[in-house]
Structures are given as C-alpha cells and as structure tokens.
C-alpha cells in the first residue's frame, strides 16, 4: 500500500502509452489508488511474452514510457521502477483477447502472466470491438468513452478481488468486455474457449493466415459452449477468466512406460547418475 493507505497499481499495455484505452484505465484506477504507468512507448501488439533484454526508459506524465514489450514493462517495473506495487493491470486493449490459443500471443495478457511469476496479482483488460479483422479492425476508431464498460469492471475487480481471496487460487484474471450498448453489462466467470479457426491459404508466392473467429463474433454466430469467454462476450456479458501462469502437468501412464523402456531400447544403463 502507498503511504496514504491506497493500493498502488502498475499499469501497462501493448497498444502503447498514448492509446485511448490506456488513458481510460489509468483514469479509472486513479479513482481508487495510486497508478504508475510503465508502458511501451509505441504499439507492441501481439508480441506475446517477448523480452528485449535491454530497454530505454523515458519519463512520461503518467509514469514511464519504455522502448520495449509489455513483458519488458512488467519486469522493469517490478524489479526496478516501482517494485512495491500491489497489483499489475494491463490494458485496456483495443480488441478482445479471447480463447485459449490467444493467451500466448497477446501482449496484454503476457504482461499479466509475467507479473504472476513475481507473485504479484495481475489483471489483463480488453475491450471487444465489433469490427471483424484486418483493415476493418485497424480503421475502427475507439474513443476513451468506448472503454467505459471494461474500465468499470476492471476498477471493481482491482478494488475487491484480492481482499475477496480471488488470488489465493487464481494468479491472474483475463477480463474482456462486450461492446457497450448503453446499459451496464453483468459479469460472468468463464473459461477460455478451445475453438480454433485459424486458416492458411496459398495466394501465389504468399500464404495468407486468417483467424475466422472474429467475423463469426461480429455476426454473433460463435458455436462456443455456455461458460466460455467468447460466448459470454457475444451475449453481452463481461467475461472474467481466473487463470494460472505456469503450464500445468499431468502424469501419464503411457509416457511413464515409454520412459521406463527407453533405457532397454537404447542400451542405456538405467542406474547411471
């Protein structure tokens, strides 16, 4: 906690420190605590957990602008610039981060994952945009006011989740809000959808990769089951997925048997070492 007793938040993102979504979340969090911005100086979308190894830091009116990735920002923030924060938030991202396959690609989500390895609670915050994909998405203008739904949810969770014990089992939350329709959206606890619709089509010497799910979301036709993140957002609810950062492991009898037979087949002394 800060000297005033208010929580201290490290705020980062992947759209860049000057993006309207970042400012919207900064202002929302400032109403409940102290906010220190440690965010990329420019757009670093979809870089996952890439690390630069060496970054430059510039003072900014909101905190610090980093010539680096969202994961860089979390590391340099927690290790150097503001190590005594109570929580890391990443966002607000223009565009949803939904589905299990997206988690590793998203710079927004990756900043929250990085915080989990420091044992610092984290929330990734994204706003769904009903624009499909490609050029239509890039040209879709989103103002600070358009983030009102997701900032409302993020502020509420930042204020109450830790005290409620949410982070006793979850290491970070992935929050996605539907496009605002004029009335507050309810909140639903979800799991990431496993539906995957990536395609790769040959076009002469090039191959075009497309994610078909965004057009289906725009049409409202996603087949995701009830309880998944995309289904909640398409139906007008704020999705909150409680997640853990390390990859889970399960013991497999079949793999155990292969490991035991490896020495015999390869002529290795099983007692070595």
UniProtKB/TrEMBL annotation:
Alphabetical list of SUPFAM superfamilies matching this protein: SurE-like
Record-listed E.C. numbers: 3.1.3.5
Organism per entry: Halorarum halophilum
Keyword Hydrolase: yes
Cofactor binding notes: Binds 1 divalent metal cation per subunit.
Compartments where found: Cytoplasm
Annotated binding of a divalent metal cation, by residue: 14-15, 45, 93
Xref: InterPro entries: SurE, SurE-like_Pase/nucleotidase, SurE-like_sf
Entry protein name: 5'-nucleotidase SurE
Assigned keywords, A-Z: Cytoplasm, Hydrolase, Metal-binding, Nucleotide-binding
Gene Ontology CC terms, in alphabetical order: cytoplasm
Family recorded in the similarity comment: Belongs to the SurE nucleotidase family.
Co-factor(s): a divalent metal cation
Residue span(s) of domain Survival protein SurE-like phosphatase/nucleotidase: 10-193
Annotated catalysed reactions: a ribonucleoside 5'-phosphate + H2O = a ribonucleoside + phosphate
Functional summary from the UniProt entry: Nucleotidase that shows phosphatase activity on nucleoside 5'-monophosphates.
Major location category of this protein: cytoplasm
Single GO MF descriptor: nucleotide binding
Pfam families, A to Z: SurE (PF01975)
